[in-house]
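Review form for a predicted model. The reviewer records the input and the model, then writes brief findings.
Reviewer: anonymous (R2)
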Amino acid sequence: MRTILILTGMLSALVLHAQNWAQAGIVNEGINYLYSDSINGNLYLGGPFRYVNGTSVNGICLLDCLGALHTLGSGQDNCGPFNCDPIKIITRYKDEHYVSWTNKTIGGGIEVNGIARWDGNAWKSLNNGFNFPSAANGFMEHEGDLYVAGAYTIDIDSVTHYGIAKWNGTAWTGFGFPNYPNDAPLSQAAAWYKGKLYLAGGFLFPLGDNGDYILDIASFDGQQWSPVADGIKGGLWHGINDMVVYKDELYVCGLFRQIDGNAGNKIMRWNGTQWKDVGGGICDPDATLHHMLIHDDKLYVTGIFTCVGDGIPASCIASWDGERWCSYGNSVFNNRVLSIAFWHDTMYIGGGFTEIDGQPVNYFAKWIGDHSTDTCSAPVSVQKEPSTASTLQISPNPAGDQLRIQWPGGEMLPNNLRVFDASGKDLSSLTDVVINAQTATLRTGRLAPGLYFLQVGMGDGRVWSGRFVKR
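Model under review:
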C-alpha cells in the first residue's frame, strides 16, 4: 500500500503472511480429534487415517514427550486400504484413555461396541458398550463420573437409554432422556452448569403434553428434562456441536444463526436465565464451529469461517477472552479445522485442510509463528451500538475506485490500515491511502468486485473495523 500523509504521522509497514504453521506429522487422512494429556505428557490423535509417519496405526496413536510415535495395540479393526471408521473423541479417565467410534471391535477382535478404553497395554470394553451401530461424540468428567453424550442407545438393567449416560469405571447409569422418534438423538456434548446437567446436539421433539419442545439443548435437574428457554431456532441451520462452561457461563457453538432469532451467530452463551451474544460471534452466515477449548483463560474456537466479532478477519481459528475476539495469526486455511490442543505450550491443530497460506500442509499442523499479525476487536465493555462511532464509517458503500473512511476519535491518526478479502487474505498492497486529519481516502481501483473488510489500528491499541463492497 502506498501511503500519503497530509499531517504528521505514519502508517506502519504492512505485515505480510509469515510462516506461521508447519507440518506436525505425515497423516494420510484427516484428523478428527486431538487430546493433550497433561499427566503423562502425550498427545493423542484420532481420526479416519490408517498411517502416521508411514506407520500403520489404524485410526489412533500417540506422540510421547520426545515426539516419538506409538501405536495403541493394533488400533481399530476392519479398516480399509487407506482409512478407518473415524475416531470421534478421546479423553483420560481414571488412568485409562477412552475413545469412541462406530465399530464393534478393536485391537484384533476385542468386542467393545462403539466405545473402548486403553489401559496402556491392551484394549478393554465398558461392559457391553452401546447397541451397535452407535458412537459417543462428547466426554465430560464430573464428580468422579464420566458423562458420555452421543448418537447411541444403551441397555442398562434391561432399560434402554438414549443419548446420555454416565460411567463410574465399572457400571453405567442412564438419565431417562426422551426417546428420539425411531432412533437415538444426535447428542454432541454434555456439561454441568449451576447444578443441572445439560445435553446439546441436533434434536427436536415434544416434551410431554404441555406444548414444550426440546430444540437442540435440554437441562436435567435430577428429576426431569426441561427445555432451555426456546432452544436453538432455525430450519436447516440449527444444531450444537460443542458446549463448555467458561467464566461462569455456558457456551454453545455450532451451525445456528442469529438471523433465525438466536442471540448469537454460531456461538452464544447461557447465564442460567437468558441467552446472550458473544461479542458479535462469527461474521459468516454460512460458517460452522466444531470445537471449543479453554487454555490460559481464553476460549479457542475452530471450524470453518473467515471472520469474527465486528469484522475481524480470522480463518478457522480464533480466541475469545470474555471481552473481545482475536485472530490467531493471519493465515488462511483451505478447509476446516476440527480440533485443537496445546501440547508442550504449542498449539496443534487437526482437520480436513491440505493447504495453509497456499502451501501444502496436510491435516496436522503446529504453530511456529509469532503473534505480531494477530488482530483483535474492540472490547465489548467499550463497544457501542453499530449506529454510533464504534465502527468505521465508510462511504460510498458500495464503492467504486475510491472511498472515504472516518474513524472514532478523529483527533488521533491511525498507525495501521489493512484491507482483507472475504477469505481473510490481506490485499492492502493493492490499495493506496491518503490520511487527512480525521479521515482517510482509500483508492480501491485495483481490487476486484466483491466484499472486503477494513481494519484501522490506533496508536493506543484500539482497532476499528468495517466492511465494504467494491462494485
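Findings: The chain has a mean pLDDT of 87.
Further findings: The longest strand covers residues 145-156.
Recommendation: see findings above.
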